[in-house]
Design goal:
The structure is a single chain. By secondary structure, the protein is of the alpha+beta class. It has helices at 2-27, 44-50, 55-63, 66-73, 91-98, 108-116; strands spanning 79-84, 120-121, 136-138, 144-150, 154-157, 160-161, 169-171, 174-179. The chain contains six helices and eight strands. Strands 2-1-8-7 form a four-stranded mixed sheet, with helices on one face. Strands 3-4-5-6 form a four-stranded antiparallel sheet, with no helix packed on it.
């Protein structure tokens, strides 16, 4: 009888625990704990395409060929892009390199590798806290870039200043940072 009594108490305690847990879930209905992410339903390429400050970068990506953008941004992998804003690089000279010469040869793949992939990492790289001067990021073109700074003084990518208002922009397949000072 003592054993049966213990089982009834245990069953009652479990039932009471489930009832309390179930009722506490209903109290939280309507509370939004996480902040809304404006670009969470878009890919990196969609966000870059929609940004009027990144049209030069888009033109270079498109000049490299549709296969370049598709092969990079329409995969199920995550990326971090440091996108240079208009006027921070010589767009015309870079696009001129993608145009086929008299023999029909084009440097589109080389431009894609040396310029576009030099702004993209194959993983998420956030600008959080203090990033020391020895913080290196491996880019898609297999080169390293420094990503340093802190919240107060700002962050830099290979010594180039990032837009403090457009850093760590979360999208469906990665993060986007904007480069705002001129490239060298």
């Amino acid at each position: 009888m003592n054993k049966i009594f213990r089982h009834k108490i245990l069953a009652g305690a479990m039932l009471l625990g489930f009832m309390l847990a179930g009722s506490s879930c209903e109290d939280n209905v309507g509370i939004n704990v996480s902040p809304e992410i404006p670009h969470a339903d878009k890919t990196l390429y969609e966000v870059i395409l929609d940004d009027p400050e990144l049209t030069d970068f888009v033109e270079i990506i498109n000049a490299c060929g549709a296969h370049c953008a598709d092969s990079l941004f329409n995969q199920s992998r995550v990326y971090t892009v440091w996108a240079p804003v208009n006027g921070t690089f010589n767009k015309d000279s870079i696009i001129a390199e993608t145009v086929a010469d008299s023999t029909g040869n084009s440097n589109r793949d080389i431009v894609f590798r040396t310029f576009v992939e030099a702004h993209i990492a194959n993983h998420l790289v956030q600008a959080n806290g203090t990033l020391d001067s020895d913080n290196y990021v491996l880019l898609l073109n297999n080169k390293n870039a420094t990503f340093t700074g802190d919240y107060k003084s700002g962050y830099t990518f290979s010594g180039i200043q990032l837009d403090p208002d457009y850093t760590n922009v979360r999208v469906k397949n990665g993060l986007l940072h904007k480069i705002v000072s001129p490239s060298e």
